[in-house]
Design goal:
Helices cover 38% and strands 19% of the residues. By secondary structure, the chain is of the alpha/beta class.
Amino acid sequence: MSRTPLVAVVDDDEMSREATGELIETFGLATCIFASGAAFLASDCVQRTSCLLADVQMSDIDGLQLLHKLTSSGYRIPVIFFTAFPDERVRKRALKAGAICYLSKPVDPTGLRDCIRLAIGPWQGEPAA
């Protein structure tokens, strides 16, 4: 029996975090949501995460720092960044650091689903496009 992929959402904006988690669940995926990078790193979800969706700008650990901490700890979790303040320089840095996608908020559901599919491949129970 295959397990449902887990997508972790890290965003310090509560409304965005909750809405994004609910959207991901409509894709047939499990979610863990966190208000900070530190909370995610301290959780047991890190080892189970199939894909991480992280805000670029957060108050404790920004998204790029979070990706660096994960990588330096040996985790190879596909990362998708999203931001309310898109910046071409930051996008280039994020992609160079290994991010799968860089999305603007509010996220387009189809674009997000496509990025998750790119990160983890098709999943059981995935709704038709």
